[in-house]
């Protein structure tokens, strides 16, 4: 099915309305369309054709949004790249792209204008989002225009939406939770307020003074806002909070402060939201398998993520209560979700074990009110050399900041392993350690 391009429709209907608000300027829908058309022309001159992949390695902001919409107008597939990753990591994610956009696309008249009317084929791939599973290898998830459209419609039914919505995005645009805000806003013809990174004072000011009606948060950022004194923001209707475990105590604290928090369960393979406040989105089917694994189906689910039985097997565990509301109780996978970011323990272990002082390392997630889960390392070192700061500094040279362990425990005995040498992760939570460094702030 072919439909009119979302951005062109928004510019025709509400050309003067604010589409995007950032620290470096705002764009109306008419202005965004003009710049995106010019950007699409720039892509064409670089040899990009419909169906080609275009890696977008730009920080959240005007340049990223223009490049995203330029890809959609040109029929190219956007591949967002997290600029916080190391160069080697970025290259892996950009492999196979016809072009890597590392500078804002040209938007001047002499750069040419891609003026032809654009359309979206709902079955076509709109974006490829990379997510890490239980191994260190990033997994590409192909999401179609249909996935994004149904996700936007389902979210609007669950939360309500008008053209006057002002949705604040403090999440990375390389993640589906952040990217969806840009795309949904174009579909709704409303305003996306994009911050390049989460800064507590700036977000507090926006929530108190800039008429923000919706915001997407993770446990870490919600906790920091409450610590900063957030209470009863006048315009805020909904604070979606998810991206990983959100402690019940944190939810209760937010509600006591008058923050309309809405616990949300979602994943990349389902184009972001699956449930909000318990029930699934209206277009989403949900059930649990005999072993408690959460299974999802419906038009938001990526085609390539479906198993042979027609369901997305999430690897998460939970149950549905008598009201049909989902309660997530844990994960079958080993992946740590900290501050809304996925961390593969094996990747961090490999970096730690590359340090000359380390004999063995194991990494796990432990419940944490601020981070949802904190990345914790258990390390067997050589010759009693215990220097947690040195180990963190070593990790910081090779890993994104959110992957660096928040705490390091030391042990003088070998880590528990199977006969084949695999770590017995189920035994790590209660593993006896000799010492623990002070926790990072």
Describe the structure.
- The protein contains eleven helices and 25 strands.
- It has 441 residues and is of the alpha/beta class.
- The strands form seven sheets. An eight-stranded mixed beta sheet has the order 3-2-11-10-12-13-14-15.
- Helix 6 links the parallel strand 10 and strand 11.
- The radius of gyration is 22 Å and the shape is globular.
- The N and C termini lie far apart (50 Å).
- The model has no long low-confidence stretch (mean pLDDT 89).
Oligomeric status of the shown chains? single chain
Uncertain segments are none
Strand order of the largest sheet: 3-2-11-10-12-13-14-15
Strand content: 25-35%
E-strand count: 25
Overall structural class, as computed from helix and strand content, comes to alpha/beta
Largest sheet: 8 strands, mixed
Mean pLDDT: 89
Shape category: globular
Radius of gyration: 22 Å
Helix content: 25-40%
Distance between the termini: 50 Å
Number of discrete helical segments:
11
């Amino acid at each position: 099915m072919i439909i009119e391009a979302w951005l062109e429709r928004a510019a025709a209907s509400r050309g003067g309305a604010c589409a995007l608000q950032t620290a470096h300027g705002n764009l109306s829908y008419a202005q965004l369309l003009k710049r995106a058309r010019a950007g699409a022309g720039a892509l064409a001159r670089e040899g990009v054709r419909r169906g080609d992949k275009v890696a977008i390695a730009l920080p959240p902001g005007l340049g990223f949004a223009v490049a995203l919409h330029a890809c959609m107008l040109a029929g190219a597939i956007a591949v967002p790249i997290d600029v916080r990753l190391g160069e080697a990591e970025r290259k892996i994610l950009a492999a196979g792209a016809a072009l890597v956009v590392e500078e804002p696309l040209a938007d001047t008249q002499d750069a040419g204008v891609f003026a032809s009317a654009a359309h979206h084929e709902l079955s076509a791939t709109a974006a490829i989002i990379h997510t890490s599973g239980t191994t260190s290898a990033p997994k590409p998830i192909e999401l179609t225009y249909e996935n994004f459209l149904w996700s936007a419609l389902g979210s609007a039914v669950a939360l309500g939406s008008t053209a006057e919505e002002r949705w604040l995005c403090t999440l990375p645009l390389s993640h589906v939770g952040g990217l969806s805000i840009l795309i949904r806003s174009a579909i709704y013809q409303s305003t996306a307020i994009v911050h390049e990174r989460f800064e507590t004072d700036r977000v507090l000011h926006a929530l108190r003074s800039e008429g923000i009606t919706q915001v997407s948060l993770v446990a870490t950022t919600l906790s920091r806002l409450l610590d900063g004194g957030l209470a009863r923001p006048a315009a805020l209707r909904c604070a979606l909070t998810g991206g990983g475990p959100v402690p019940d105590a944190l939810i209760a604290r937010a509600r006591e402060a008058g923050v309309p928090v809405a616990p949300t369960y979602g994943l990349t393979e389902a184009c972001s939201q699956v449930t909000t406040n318990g029930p699934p989105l209206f277009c989403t089917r949900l059930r649990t398998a005999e072993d408690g694994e959460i299974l999802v189906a419906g038009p938001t689910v990526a085609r390539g993520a479906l198993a042979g039985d027609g369901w997305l097997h999430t690897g998460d565990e939970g149950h549905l209560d008598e009201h049909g509301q989902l309660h997530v109780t844990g994960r079958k996978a080993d992946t740590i979700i900290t501050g809304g970011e996925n961390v593969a323990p094996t990747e961090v272990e490999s970096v730690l074990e590359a340090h000359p002082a380390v004999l063995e390392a194991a990494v796990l997630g432990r419940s944490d009110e601020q981070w949802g889960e904190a990345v914790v390392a258990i390390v067997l070192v050589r010759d009693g050399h215990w220097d947690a700061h040195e180990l963190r500094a070593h990790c910081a040279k090779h890993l994104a900041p959110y992957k660096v362990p928040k705490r390091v425990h030391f042990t003088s005995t070998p880590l528990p392993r199977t006969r084949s040498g695999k770590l017995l992760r189920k035994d790590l939570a209660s593993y006896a350690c000799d010492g623990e460094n002070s926790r990072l702030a």
